[in-house]
Design brief:
The structure is a single chain. It contains 19 helices and 8 strands. The chain has about 475 residues and is an alpha/beta fold. It folds into 3 domains: about 230 residues, no CATH class; about 90 residues, Response regulator (Rossmann fold, 3-Layer(aba) Sandwich), CATH 3.40.50.2300; about 140 residues, 3-Layer(aba) Sandwich (Mannitol-specific EII, Chain A), CATH 3.40.930.10. Strand 7 and strand 8 form a beta hairpin. Helix 9 crosses helix 10 and helix 15 packs antiparallel against helix 16. The longest helix is centred in the C-terminal third of the chain and has 30 residues. The radius of gyration is 25 Å and the shape is globular. Keywords: Repeat. This is PRD domain-containing protein. InterPro entries: BglG_antiterminators, PRD, PRD_sf, PTrfase/Anion_transptr, PTS_EIIA_type-2_dom.
């Protein structure tokens, strides 16, 4: 279900609280959300609406912990927390949670939630410390590195940047005080959102190098939550070009255009508005879809959506579904075109006999080196990535790859293992080693979206693992 929140298929549904509630079967998150909203209103404590889902994810993880008796004994040198408005909010809210769920919530948990709220306080009243300013510089440089490597720009989302800085300050606090915070959603995040988790690994690795201390997988998972919330806002490869058709009066036309662009501003661009259908204009503008206010039939292979002249809620839902389908279709075309080119018979192993994950990676990388696909740094980078967090999944599959995209050309090396091996706590039978050139960085996003889809279907994974012929392997991938 996390996949529905963070990946591009449910564009922006991270703010859907009903969907969020399904992540926590042990308690009613919608009731918790109502308590939280009521507490904020009662104490006149403003929180930006876009931050509510992220805060609720953190709160949900904390409640899940406490329900099974996992208490974080949080302490901090900041003596001002208990006199803050955030302490008052956290205390009253958690008292009501305690009564609702019948659990005891100690003061240390109140303090940790208050610290979280302080971090997310409105930016104009937040005074950054020298450590925070250092973290802001670190985050800026790290997000630039992610942009250069994967072509995904988080830097424009200032709310996310601020939130990540605050979160990393909390990470440093926990490391300094040797506080371990369990993340009961780690397994879901890691297996169902591989791209988001991989970007979190990149941030954690750079932070570890800066401070000389390693971050746990649980902390990497928390970083992924922040990345996922931002990624869900703007995870579209390109805007769909639309033509609006219909003889509307100027006021109605302006209203329809404003409604569409306001709701789907990152996903659609109205390139032309016509009083009636003109085939030549549709072809000239290379339109991806036609939005018509009147019933319309034509011969062009362009998707057409008929809406009411007022663009009501049902129209919005229909356009939402159509955009999802168009984006999925376009991503599949790109993926299918590239996957066959990257999987070369030379680097396809029908039966590879190895005993460990390190041996499998080493054997596969050595052959890439012999063909001058990668240099000596590639193996070290792959092993360093594994040290941060194993790239295996609970579906017989491992996807090792380096921390940076520095291959001379893009290759996906496939190995069907002679027998299953232990790999990061999982039983692995097939390895897909990614060696991508920076020029093909967009493929990384498409590949991980495909991976998120395929590993949600165990039958598909079992079939894929059983295919030891390169052409049949590619054919199955393209068809699924």
């Amino acid at each position: 279900m996390y996949r529905d929140l963070l990946t591009s298929e449910i564009q922006g549904e991270f703010i859907n609280l009903n969907r969020l509630a399904t992540l926590y079967p042990n308690f009613n998150m919608l009731e918790i959300s109502k308590l939280f909203d009521a507490t904020l209103a009662r104490l006149d404590y403003p929180v930006r609406q876009t931050l509510i889902p992220v805060l609720l994810v953190h709160i949900g993880i904390s409640i899940d912990r406490m329900l099974v008796g996992q208490i974080v004994h949080y302490d901090t040198k900041d003596d001002t927390i208990e006199s803050s408005k955030e302490w008052q909010v956290a205390q009253q809210f958690l008292e009501e949670v305690s009564q609702l769920l019948g659990i005891t919530i100690p003061p240390c948990e109140v303090k940790m939630m208050a610290r979280l709220l302080i971090g997310y306080r409105e930016r104009d009243v937040y005074q950054a410390s020298s450590q925070q300013k250092q973290l802001e510089l670190f985050v800026k440089e790290t997000l630039e590195a992610i942009k250069d490597s994967l072509g995904i720009d988080f830097g424009e989302d200032l709310e996310f940047v601020h939130g990540l800085c605050i979160h990393l300050q909390g990470v440093l606090e926990r490391l300094e005080n040797q506080i371990h915070v369990p993340n009961l959603l780690l397994k879901n995040i890691k297996s169902q959102y591989p791209l988001v988790f991989d970007m979190a690994v990149c941030i954690a690795n750079r932070l570890s190098q800066m401070i000389g201390m390693s971050l746990s997988e649980e902390e990497v998972g928390f970083i992924a939550l922040h990345l996922g919330a931002s990624y869900a806002k703007d995870s579209h490869a390109k805007k769909q070009k639309a033509i609006l058709v219909g003889a509307l009066n100027p006021h109605l036309k302006k209203l329809v255009v404003e409604k569409i662009t306001d709701r789907f501003q990152n996903r659609i661009e109205i390139v032309s508005s016509l009083p009636y259908f003109e085939e030549s204009v549709v072809l000239e503008k290379n339109a991806d879809l036609i939005v018509s206010c009147v019933p319309l039939k034509h011969r062009l292979p362009v998707e057409t959506l008929v809406i009411t002249p007022f663009f009501n809620a049902q129209d919005e839902l229909s356009l939402f579904k159509l955009l999802n389908e168009l984006e999925k279709r376009q991503a599949n075309i790109e993926f299918n075109m590239m996957i066959g080119r990257f999987i070369d018979e030379t680097f396809f192993y029908p039966q590879l006999k190895v005993e460990t994950a390190t041996e499998a990676i080493t054997v596969m990388v050595d052959k890439l080196k012999r063909y001058s696909i990668v240099d000596d740094s590639f193996l070290e980078s792959c092993l360093q990535r594994e040290a941060c967090s194993a790239t295996s999944f609970d579906y017989s599959l491992a996807i090792p790859h380096p921390l940076v995209l520095n291959s001379r050309q893009s290759v996906i090396s496939i190995a069907h293992l002679d027998h299953p091996i232990e790999w990061g706590g999982s039983r692995v039978e097939m390895v897909m080693l990614l060696a991508l050139n920076e020029a093909d960085r967009e493929f990384m996003t498409i590949f991980f979206d495909w991976l998120a889809r395929i590993i949600s279907d165990q039958d598909s994974i079992r079939t894929l693992v059983s295919i030891d012929n390169r052409d049949q392997f590619i054919q199955y991938i393209v068809q699924h």
